[in-house]
C-alpha cells in the first residue's frame, strides 16, 4: 500500500501558490512540443510554428477543459452554481479533458488553415504528442488527490486524505463509512500508463504502416487517438464514482468517449473507402492512396 499523500501546493511566492497540478500541465505541454517537433522533423514538415501553435492549442484546451469541469461539478464538489467566482479564480481543482480536446481540436483546425498545412498529416503528428502530454498531466491529478477508484487491498492502492474524498467514500468523521486509512485504486496511474502504451502504438503504426506506404493513409493515426482514448477512458470510468456528470445514469465521459471512438472508427472506414474509389485525391487535406499517402522516405532503421 502507498501511504504517501502529496501536498497539492509545490511552493509559494508570497501569497501566490504554485501547485503541482499547474507544473504538471506545463511539463506536459513541453513534452508534447518536443515529441511534435521530433515527429514533424522526421516527416519533413515545418517546425517553425510548433511552439506558437501549441501555445494557442494549450490556451484553447485550458478554456474548454475548465468549461467542461465547471459543468461537471456545477452542483457537486466545488458547487459552482452557488460560488460563481470559483469558476474563474484559482485554485483550480481540475480540468475536464473532453472539453479541452474539443476546443483544442477547433484550434488545430484553425491553425492548419492559418499556416496552410495539411490537417490530416499534422493530426498524425499531434496525436501521440497530445497523448504523451496526458501521460504526464495525469500526475497532476495525483498531486490533487483526485481521479481514483473504489477502496482496494491491492499493493499499489493509494491513500486519499479525508478532505479529498468524494461522497461515496467519505470518512466516518464526515458522516461516511469508509475508513480514514483506506486505500484506493489509482485511476490516474492506470490512465497514464494506458496513454503511454497508446503513444508507443501510434508511433509504431506510423513508422511501419504509413511512412512506408503500407495500409494506413494520412490522418489514420490522428483518428486512432479518439478510438484509443475514448475506449481507454470509458473502460476506466467503470471504476470511477462520486465525480460523475451523468445522463440517465450513464457517465458523460463514457457517452462522449464511446461516441468519439465510434465516430473516429467510422471516419477511418469512410476515408479508406473514398481513397479506393478516388485513386487521385483532390488537392488539400484529402489523403493520397495508401501507396502514395506519405512521400518522405522511411526513417533509418
Side by side, the strands of the main sheet go 1-2
The chain-level mean pLDDT equals 84
Note the gap between the termini: 42 Å
> What is the β-strand count?
6
Helices and strands in order, then pairings?
Elements: E1 9-13, E2 16-19, H1 20-42, H2 50-72, H3 97-115, H4 119-143, E3 158-159, E4 183-184, H5 187-210, H6 220-236, E5 246-247, E6 250-251, H7 252-277
Antiparallel strand pairs: 1-2, 3-4, 5-6
In short:
The chain is built from 7 helices and 6 strands, in the order ββααααββααββα. The protein has 301 residues and is mainly alpha-helical. The protein has a domain at 9-202.
Labels describing this entry:
6 strands; 7 helices; 301 residues; two-stranded antiparallel ribbon; two-stranded antiparallel sheet; mainly alpha
Characterization of this structure:
The chain has 301 residues and is mostly helical. The protein has a domain at 9-202. The chain has helices at 20-42, 50-72, 97-115, 119-143, 187-210, 220-236, 252-277, and strands at residues 9-13, 16-19, 158-159, 183-184, 246-247, 250-251. A two-stranded antiparallel ribbon has the order 1-2. Strands 3-4 form a two-stranded antiparallel ribbon. A two-stranded antiparallel ribbon has the order 5-6. α4 packs antiparallel against α5. The longest helix has 26 residues, at 252-277. It starts with 8 loop residues before the first strand and ends in a 24-residue tail after the last helix. 38% of the residues are buried.
Amino acid at each position: 500500500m502507498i501511504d504517501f499523500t502529496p501536498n497539492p501546493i509545490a511552493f509559494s511566492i508570497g501569497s501566490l501558490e504554485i501547485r503541482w497540478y499547474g507544473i504538471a500541465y506545463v511539463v506536459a505541454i513541453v513534452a508534447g512540443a518536443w515529441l511534435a517537433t521530433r515527429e514533424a522533423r522526421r516527416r519533413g514538415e515545418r517546425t517553425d510554428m510548433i511552439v506558437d501553435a501549441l501555445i494557442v492549442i494549450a490556451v484553447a484546451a485550458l478554456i474548454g477543459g475548465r468549461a467542461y469541469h465547471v459543468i461537471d461539478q456545477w452542483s457537486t464538489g466545488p458547487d459552482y452554481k452557488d460560488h460563481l467566482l470559483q469558476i474563474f479564480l484559482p485554485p483550480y481543482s481540475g480540468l475536464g479533458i473532453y472539453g479541452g480536446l474539443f476546443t483544442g481540436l477547433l484550434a488545430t483546425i484553425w491553425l492548419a488553415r492559418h499556416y496552410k498545412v495539411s490537417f490530416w498529416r499534422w493530426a498524425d503528428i499531434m496525436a501521440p504528442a497530445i497523448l504523451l502530454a496526458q501521460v504526464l498531466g495525469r500526475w497532476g491529478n495525483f498531486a490533487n488527490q483526485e481521479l481514483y477508484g473504489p477502496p482496494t487491498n491491492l499493493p499499489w492502492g493509494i491513500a486519499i486524505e479525508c478532505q479529498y474524498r468524494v461522497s461515496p467514500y467519505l470518512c466516518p468523521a464526515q458522516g461516511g463509512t469508509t475508513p480514514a486509512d483506506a486505500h484506493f485504486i489509482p485511476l490516474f496511474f492506470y490512465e497514464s500508463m494506458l496513454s503511454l502504451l497508446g503513444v508507443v502504438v501510434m508511433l509504431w503504426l506510423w513508422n511501419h504502416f504509413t511512412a512506408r506506404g503500407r495500409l494506413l493513409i494520412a490522418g489514420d493515426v490522428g483518428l486512432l487517438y479518439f478510438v484509443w482514448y475514448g475506449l481507454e477512458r470509458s473502460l476506466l470510468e467503470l471504476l470511477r464514482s462520486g465525480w460523475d456528470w451523468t445522463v440517465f445514469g450513464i457517465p458523460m465521459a463514457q457517452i462522449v468517449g464511446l461516441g468519439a471512438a465510434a465516430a473516429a472508427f467510422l471516419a477511418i472506414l469512410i476515408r479508406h473507402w473514398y481513397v479506393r474509389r478516388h485513386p487521385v485525391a483532390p488537392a488539400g487535406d484529402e489523403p493520397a492512396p495508401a501507396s502514395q499517402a506519405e512521400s518522405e522516405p522511411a526513417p533509418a532503421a
